[in-house]
Amino acid sequence: MSNDMAAAAAVADAIEVAPEVAERPSVDPRNSLNELTGGEWLYFTKSVLTTTYPAELGHHLRKAHGACKPPRLMKELIEFFTKADGVVLDPFAGVGGTLLGATIADPPRAAVGIEINPRWASIYEQVCDEEEIPRQQMLIGDCRTVMAGMEPESVDFVGTDPPYNVHLERTMCNGVYDATHGNRRTDYDMRSDDDGDLANGEGFEDYLEGMTEVFAGCHRVLRPRGYMAVIVRNAYQKGRYCYTNIHLAERAESVGFVLKGEKIWYQAGTRLRPYGYPFAYVPNIAHQYIVILQKPK
User: Fold this and answer.
1) If you write DSSP's letter for every residue of 69-84 in order, what string do you get?
2) DSSP 8-class letter at 109
């Protein structure tokens, strides 16, 4: 028997003994939210999410932004909260994690990003070109102004990772351990020079007032019964722990959203640093909250 005939016979034998691949369960015809099966839906609803996403999709470029969102995280959110023809909005698009998540979703979704800093938008475009994937729409400007010019009820889902607070200078243990434990891979000062950048505010109350305006804009452009997912980390600044997630949820509800729940997102491998050592307890905040809100019908 020739090598070609032997190979063909081997393939035929393998096909004959291979287990049948189970068909993907069908989507319930009553499911008006997404394209997921019952099992996929159930798995997503767990309130704790632990991830170890790979460094991919231009991460070597995107990591210049200290809070770049993993595209695969955004993909999971987008696939749960939209149908195949849904439109996604990220008012704090950064280097495009949400836009990339929409592009790699199954099937891909259309997305619009708004970013106040042209530097981050440019990195997103570089990533798309390098990865040879189509660019989603990225608009430059203050999201409060840009959303005011968008059509009402024109998007199906808002997924975003806003600034967590105003920017404050921070050191570890008064600078004692900066040399040995402060070598972060990215610069977490991500502010632009624009006065509209919420991280440039005078204090936490200014930040919350700005976020209230943002949420009002999101509420206007989101369709009825659409969802908004806000990724946020609580803050420890000036000796006080701040429940940023609760404050933002309250501000979102004040403009018409309804709080539906939260997912605790733990990104495994978060590096621990000796904050407060050896004088006081200061937490290593290794998790973030994904606050889920809905615009009522």
Assistant:
1) PPHHHHHHHHHHH--T
2) -
Residue pLDDT, tens place only, 187-213: 445 555 666 677 666 788 999 999 999
The percent helix, strand, coil of the chain (3-state, each to 5) is: 35, 20, 45
Angle at 161 between CA 143 and CA 269, to 5 degrees: 160
CATH of the domain at 139: 3.40.50.150
Which pTM was predicted?
Answer: 0.84
Q: Identify the bridge partners of residue 288 per DSSP, sorted by sequence position.
A: 265
Task: Tell me whether residue 63 is in a domain.
Answer: yes
d(CA 287, CA 297): 32
CA distances from residue 27 to 41, 64, 157, 200, 244 in whole angstroms, order as listed = 10, 40, 20, 46, 37
Taking a C-beta distance cutoff of 8 angstroms, is the pair 242, 204 a contact? yes
pLDDT at 66: 83
CA distance linking residue 130 with residue 100, whole number of Å: 13
Instruction: Identify whether 109 is part of a domain.
Output: yes
**Does a structural domain hold residue 23?**
no
Cα of 35 vs its chain's centroid, Å: 20
How many domains does the structure of the chain reveal?
1
* Higher-confidence position of 68 and 179: 68
For the chain, give the number of residues.
Answer: 297
Residue 49 CB-half CA count within 13 A = 19
Q: Out of 68-82, 116-130, 225-239, pick the least confident.
A: 225-239
pLDDT at residue number 8: 53
Average pLDDT over residues 82-97: 98
- Among 143, 51, 65, 134, smallest CA distance to 100 is for 134
User: Structural domain of residue 50, as residue ranges?
Assistant: 38-294
132 occurs within a structural domain: yes
